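Researcher: Next entry in the queue.
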Amino acid sequence: MATCFENFLLIDSNAEFSRDFVTYQNQQFPNKPQHIIVAGEDTRHLVKMMFDNLIKDYCYCDFANEISVTELAAYLLEHHQIAGVIIHDLDFHLANDEQRAIFNSLHPIRFLVELTPEGYNYSQIPDSFQENHMSCHTEHLDEEDKSIAESLCKLEND
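Model: Structure for this entry, 158 residues:
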């Protein structure tokens, strides 16, 4: 069963994986094309995905730099209502403590995505959310955000 990550932020650290994932999302949900926002360092790749109508928006971000992440959060708060964050599972597991702290500060709803022979698998990040100046969500989750998190968690347990 496919899961629609509408208005989610995808951390782009692997160009091929990101492109394949957003292409898959657009194929699974043709009535909601370009519904993912992507942030990463490779602006050439991000612009190409934007011009190929694969993503809703993109933003440069060096996730190793706290100032860059803070600027990303400000941009997202002003221009988008992010419903959650998607991170390639390999990148999260290889991240050092500083990098994980940044990932855990982005949004209270955070999912890892991995590609398996059976397709994409999603799992919620078990680490606690650390709200701070790098967070890109409003103060309180609205009901839509809560229902998204609940439905994605239900998929994990099915």
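Model: Residues 153-158 have pLDDT under 50 and may be disordered.
Researcher: Noted, moving on.
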